[in-house]
Amino acid sequence: MLTALSAARKFIPRRIKYLLRNPTPPTVPVPLVGPVVVVGSAPKSHKPIDLDATYRIISVNASQLALQSWGVDAPDITLMGYNEIEGTNRSAVEVRRVLRGKRTGFLYVLAWRHGHQRLEEGVKAFGYGFEEAHIVDRYQRIALMHKVTGRLNLELDAETKCSNGIIAALFALYNGATAVILSGINPHSAGHVYNGVNLARLHVRMDAEILARLVQLGYPVYTADPQVSEDIGLPLWQGIG
């Protein structure tokens, strides 16, 4: 009982702090219109049926590597974790290697804490081009989850956080996507398309829960990957109409 009370006392101030800040979710300069493809880094992904220039594409970290086989030069938007900019672990180093010489439209970096100038300098240092760079703080992530799903997830530990791929899907829905098609986003997969390190994925339980909730709420969320559709019950994208 004492342990539960102590946990509650720690939780309440954080909740109040969040509510007092009243953050707003991240937005795009021009609302998304039409279907949006969110490309993750699972080793297996599929080009959505009927993909053409009317679709917008959001990539996560270095997942735009998959776009080369689709005949797409660059994503419209990239969501990137803060560690990918300056991190020294193998995954971050591989992200920078893969993205060197490539470009995106709008770049959104999650949980970056060092200021906008250092962010832009860090991205330009590994040769990744962008039109605009934006910082998305933790409170904006929380607000995004709350606005789209109705859940107030304060991200108190790794188990309660979502992956950046799921954040990208929420971001697309909040900004006007008429359909969100996931490709290369599989909570049960291991490894990444851009490196050979067969790392287990974090956030498996929360990712699956949020995807199930989006379907329950009636959001137009699909997958382009047949195995993902079979494994977690997302409807398989069959093209517009």
SSE string, helices as H and strands as E? HEEEHHEHEHHEEEHEH
Q: Helix share of residues?
A: 25-40%
Beta-strand portion reads 15-25%
Round the mean pLDDT to the nearest integer and report it: 87
Structural class: alpha/beta
User: Which segments are poorly predicted (pLDDT under 50) over 5 or more consecutive residues?
Assistant: 191-195
Described by its quaternary structure, the protein is single chain
- Total strand segments: 9
Termini gap: 54 Å
Q: Output the radius of gyration.
A: 18 Å
Task: Record the strand order, biggest sheet.
Answer: 5-4-3-2-1-6-9
Shape: globular
Biggest β-sheet, characterized? 7 strands, parallel
- The number of helical elements comes to 8
Output the keywords.
241 residues; seven-stranded parallel β-sheet; alpha/beta; two-stranded antiparallel sheet; 8 helices; single chain
